[in-house]
Design goal:
- The chain is an all-alpha fold and about 190 residues long.
- The chain has nine helices and no strands.
- The chain folds into two domains: about 110 residues, Orthogonal Bundle (Rna Polymerase Sigma Factor, Chain: A); about 80 residues, Winged helix-like DNA-binding domain superfamily/Winged helix DNA-binding domain (Arc Repressor Mutant, subunit A, Orthogonal Bundle).
- The N and C termini lie far apart (about 40 Å).
């Protein structure tokens, strides 16, 4: 696997953080806040898991405290991404359990309309209706299945990293992805 420059830079920042460099920590937080938090097209992981902006902000704050406390014990700086996602996922799961209610994930699938040419208003309405149907179908999935689809297709994580983030074998990730897609397909076909 070819390592991307941004991943190498993150690894260097992690190593610097482990040596106590506060500027590196600030840079690392700046680079990852949006991805783990609740802003940006691909940066709503905590929000998607909790379905509540305030809960996402709280879970993210607790996650950063855990990340800062634990970064010195992170053995492999290359695994920072999966490790950080796992911490956020665990903090969000804690919130869901604490409040004993299932939350719908907001904006799981975001329609990217930038630069798109709409041939007709009718075609646009039909497309929006299809997107709404997919969103509703995704909301009917269990939290585990929504999470795994989110990591794969929204956060664009490879199977190996999902495995690390969820602390499950890669084969289990593939199996869960298959079953989540099949269930989603069945829900959409029924509607």
């Amino acid at each position: 696997m070819v390592r991307q420059p941004e991943h190498i830079y993150d690894e260097l920042l992690v190593l610097d953080c482990q040596r106590g460099d506060q500027a590196a920590l600030k840079e690392l937080v700046g680079r990852w806040q949006k991805r783990l938090g609740r802003r940006g097209r691909r940066g709503r992981f905590a929000l998607r898991l909790t379905g509540d902006p305030d809960a996402a902000a709280d879970a993210l704050q607790e996650s950063w405290m855990a990340i800062v406390r634990g970064i010195g014990r992170l053995d492999d700086p290359a695994s920072f991404r999966a490790w950080a996602y796992r911490i956020v996922a665990n903090k969000c799961a804690d919130w869901v359990r604490k409040n004993q209610r299932r939350r719908e994930l907001n904006e799981l699938i975001t329609a990217d309309s930038d630069g798109r040419v709409v041939e007709s208003a009718e075609a646009e309405l039909e497309k929006q209706d299809e997107i709404s149907q997919v969103r509703l179908a995704i909301r009917k999935l269990s939290d585990d299945r929504r999470m795994i689809l989110t990591l794969k297709y929204v956060d664009e994580m490879p199977t190996r990293e999902i495995s690390k983030a969820l602390n499950i074998p890669q084969g289990t990730v593939k199996s869960r992805l298959y079953h989540a897609r099949e269930e989603l397909k069945n829900i959409l076909e029924k509607e």
